[in-house]
Design a protein that fits this description.
The chain is mostly helical. It has a single domain (9-426), classed as Growth Hormone, Chain: A (Up-down Bundle), CATH 1.20.1250. Helix content is 79%, strand content 0%. α14 (280-304) runs parallel beside α16.
């Protein structure tokens, strides 16, 4: 008996086109993570205030995920993609007036609009990929498409490192505060120049997204739907979703996973700067190392899914991730940083696997179900500011506030391990 195909021939071109979107939002995610540290220095913000970049960025997912799902239920996957690209481009281009105004709240609004577009793209692209072939190979298909997300992430990290952090004025926060008091005009010139450095890549990104929008507008994308007979009302679909334990707890696990991912990647820079004394640009280099590990592990884990139960593999990696976070907390200096970087090897499988498990067997309900899983990305909205509050506080005995703050990602991995173990045991 032949094994189910990974991708039918009629979906090869649509699969390639939609997979490019994974790189586009990966770029947005990972050019933005280092901006927490950049805005902190340029605008003289606290850790908590600068972490509002992540609150605004991931807040767009929370607000727009459900409207996006309702939109694609009413129209088509292609319409959802086009709407997402319009909002994505608009948010990027709003960085230009935000930079001219030198207003942090304006930047936050631009991030929110940008990720409202990303919410449309992710709510649309993930279930579309799942639907492009047999259900038996859906998790592998999504893992393969998601493997190209880190390609965009790596490019975003390099742009952040070499074209933003590397070009900002080297004056640290202490020197800037002193200059703001003693020579405000000179400080203002530095601030204007630094904000222009931040704005440039986002403005270019807006242009690239507009070109992608034109390409998708001209492309023919078949709409793939379930062959099952389903009631079409939102209420009926929601009721079925809420009666599916793997889905409900999958949303919870996804929220904790995204929270862990964003905390680890956002605060690698602060860890390296505060604990080891590296520059922000050098610290971002370690973030890039983490992403390379993440990319490599994604392809390895996608292959391992051919042989292992997804829930079991998810459990193992969550336990390993929690152990490495403990290393980042209790080991000082470079060993702690190595542990923190190593966490990325464990995270690579998690998002698409939780996504695939949660939506398995939902048929056309996956369109609405996808919204809950994208809404769960709001974990990246709430948890980084909480970690930043701990980081702004006092040491916990012999453990610095920076290292102590990583207790939050550890808790996240405990929740993910519990979900994976429960699913694996039920489906054994």
């Amino acid at each position: 008996m032949s094994s189910p195909s990974l991708l039918p021939r009629n979906f090869i071109i649509p699969f390639i086109l939609v997979t490019t979107l994974f790189s586009l939002w990966g770029f947005a995610n990972d050019i933005t993570n280092p901006m927490v540290a950049a805005f902190k220095n340029v605008l003289l913000l606290s850790h908590f205030e600068s972490s509002l970049v992540q609150a605004a960025f991931y807040g767009g997912y929370c607000v727009m995920a459900i409207p996006a799902a309702l939109f694609i239920r009413r129209f088509t996957y292609k319409s959802g993609i086009l709407a997402g690209l319009v909002l994505y481009a608009l948010g990027c281009l709003l960085f230009i007036p935000a930079g001219n105004a030198r207003d942090f709240s304006f930047f936050l609004a631009a991030y929110f609009i940008m990720t409202s577009g990303l919410a449309f793209l992710e709510t649309t692209a993930n279930p579309y990929i799942l639907s492009m072939g047999p259900e038996e190979t859906a998790a592998r298909r999504l893992n393969f498409a998601q493997a190209f997300n880190p390609v965009g992430s790596l490019l975003g990290m390099f742009v952040a490192k070499d074209f933003i952090l590397g070009r900002l004025d080297p004056a640290d926060e202490t020197a800037r505060r002193a200059m703001a008091e003693s020579a405000p005009e000179a400080f203002q010139k530095i601030q204007i120049a630094d904000l222009a450095v931040i704005v440039g890549p986002y403005a270019i990104l807006g242009g690239v997204v507009l070109l992608a929008m034109v390409a998708f507008a001209l492309a023919k994308l078949p709409d793939s739907t379930s062959t099952e007979s389903r009631e079409s009302t939102v209420g009926a679909s929601l009721g079925r979703l809420l009666r599916t334990p793997d889905y409900v707890w999958g949303v919870v696990a996804q929220a904790f996973y995204v929270g862990a991912q964003i905390m680890v990647w956002t605060f690698i820079i602060q860890y390296a700067v505060n604990e080891i004394g590296l520059s922000a640009q050098t610290a971002q280099g370690w973030n890039i190392v983490a992403m390379v590990i993440f990319v490599s592990s994604r392809f390895v884990c996608t292959y391992l899914l051919k042989f292992f139960n997804p829930g079991l593999l998810l459990t193992f990696l969550a336990i390993a991730g929690g152990a490495l976070v403990m290393g980042a907390i209790f080991l000082k200096g470079m060993p702690g940083l190595y542990s923190l970087v190593g966490v990325s090897a464990c995270m690579s499988l998690m998002f698409p696997t939780i996504y695939g498990i949660a939506l398995s067997g939902l048929g056309d309900d996956a369109k609405l179900g996808s919204a809950g899983l994208i809404f769960a990305i709001g974990g990246g909205c709430l948890m980084p500011p909480l970690q930043a509050l701990i980081m702004d506080g006092s040491a916990w005995g012999s453990i610095s506030a920076t290292r102590a703050s990583f207790l939050l990602p550890f808790i996240c991995f405990v929740v993910i391990a519990a979900y994976g173990f429960t699913v694996a045991r039920r489906k054994a």
